[in-house]
Fold this protein.
Amino acid sequence: MNFDNFEDISSNSIEDNDSTLDLNSFSTKEVTKNTKKRNRKRKSGKDRIIKLILTVFLVGVIVVSIVAGAFIVYAFTGVDGTMSENLDDLKLNFTTTIYVKNNNTSDFKEYQRLHGEFNRIWVSYDPQLAKAKDESYEGIPQNLVNAYVAIEDKRFYSHYGVDWKRTVSAFANMFLHFYSSNQGGSTITQQLVKNLTNDSEQKATRKVREIMRARYLESHYAKDTIIECYLNTIAMGHGLYGVGVASNYYFDKEVKELTIAECATLAAITKSPSYYAPDDQPENNRLRKNTVLSEMKSQGLITQKEYDEAIKEEVKIVASKDVLNETEVNSYAVDALIRQVTKDLAEKYNYDENHAASLFYSGGYKIYSCIDPDIQNKIDKVFNNSEKYGLKNSDGKQLQGSFTIMDYSGHVLGLAGGIGEKTTNLGMSGFNRATDAVRQPGSTMKPMSAYAPAIENNLITYSSIVNDTAVYYGKWKPNNWYNSYWGKITVQYALERSVNTIPVYLVDKLTAQTSFDFLTQKLGITTLNKEDVNLSPLGMGGTNGGITTFESAAAYAVFGNGGLYYEPKLYYKVCDQHDNVILEQNTEPVIAISEDTATVMNRLLQNVVYGSNGTGKGARSYIPNMRIYAKTGTSNDSKDLWFVGGTPYYVASCWCGYDTQKDISRSTIAMNMWGDVMSQVHKNLKTKAFTTSEFAYPYYYCTSTGNLATSSCPKALGWYKKDNIPSVCKTHGGTALDKPTISKDNSTVEKKVSETSSNSSSSSTASSKPN
């Protein structure tokens, strides 16, 4: 077949009459139409996707806007974003620290720390001194601040309490879990909020509160204040809070002494104290410490050289609570100090006593105490020796005792509240015998209630003749412990021999009320009661109320300091953690007796020790290079034994007895314990003499008449007030004797007193025997 004659229908048309059918045209139009349809379909699909995306986006924007708006409304209207805490005066639980004098200087050193649940010592931060590396600066060093900022909040100084980048990341992770664990989005300011409020639940509402409170702090306080508070409130493991006590515990250093590596070591702990503690988890801490150092270097906070040195440094971890000056069992002195401070807080600020006690352990107080650790240790060594002093009675009960020593300004330097090792803390309700054992003072009452006020009122002199004889006061008469009467004797001998009849006679002359008022108003005795306004309790010491060693030592101090009574105190002052004084002891004394009366009483009481008939003559060897004034005391049936006495340095009171009263088998035990303590206390002290009043003079007196002696009189040396000097004896003739010469240190007179004391005693008694 020949196809050449066929026409290509694809390129030719078919004509039919007037109409022509163009096949090509037909084919092209159909294809174009279909293509357009397909294109329109594709275009409409893309549009729908775009519209969908835009719709979702707009909906998201609207939702976010609504949520953000709701958040803002909630945050600013539904959340309390304020903080009641005052960062300039934080009322948190801080460790209370007791300080003592440093080697008898005016400087103080840390002695003991006391705290409740929170062990925290406040350390101040002064950026100017810290950055200048001032040698006198004792606060938080700049390197420690930089270490914490570098690892915990590198934008701390630029944000306003919230680092939004970190916050959004942490917030989103709570729902979308980008990270395997919850991320820390909190700034240093937010962490401080958490530390102050203890609001730590892992919820969005808590985060909102935290954010608002952080912004509140930033708007009210400087960054330096915020970082100072933060570094003093962070948990550092082992119950420690703040960098101050952490520095002590981990390094046995004050915070000012920390190296850069040690600063980084502390900063490494904060993220998780149990996981990064350098003592329990040394490798974990080391790795994070290196991270801290790397961050400090990268942020320009330390140089490359400082970084290299810190990386190489081997950090020595001490990690011992022994360096924190804590003890499980307080001394009796510390227990008494706790009680005195607590009571003074309650009284001054009108606190409930329980609240004041809680504040003591949590207030971060700095207590500048009077306690002398060396003296306290010597007291403890003697009183812990129950084998030597813990006598057992017929019921198997151990003898007990108490002891108080103070200087002549009322500062209590140490005390003991029992015999035997102390095993428990007493708190506010425990029984401290030094302050709480109110016992009959026996003859130690006589100088306070009778002789001192009688000499002060010029009723008697050192050598007045008094009559030791049986006298009835109503239906009662005093008996002497030696079951007889000496007749006419001198006052000096009556006191040396501890005669009972004479002080009763003197109290009767003074009146019991006058004697009682003298004890309670001039000598600070608070434990007597109305039944003690009577001749027997005041004249012989058989009181109903009784006395403690704490108060008797203070009362006897007037015989060694010129007649001034100081209320016994265990501290000088108490400051808060910012060094504001909140308690301070009154240092103004009461003039109990005149200085000349004090001198006369001092010399009379020396005869108790150095007189041949002195009831305390066993004490003269305890301190051989110095004089002692003292008085012994024994209650009825020897149930209470006392020895109270002073040296030119200190005055001390010692009591012994059973808690349930029984006779004591060793009559000198109180004197022995007093001597064992005081001999050790004075062991290395320089020889010193008592101060003599310029208004008191030594004279030789006639032991027969009590008047000033002549060359023919039996004589002894006495001391007299300027306004109450006896006349010259006219019984024995002879010429009046010159007044003895007094050397500056009283050594001449003291020597003569020592030489004549035995003559004084024997002469007084010999001449006073009944004719």
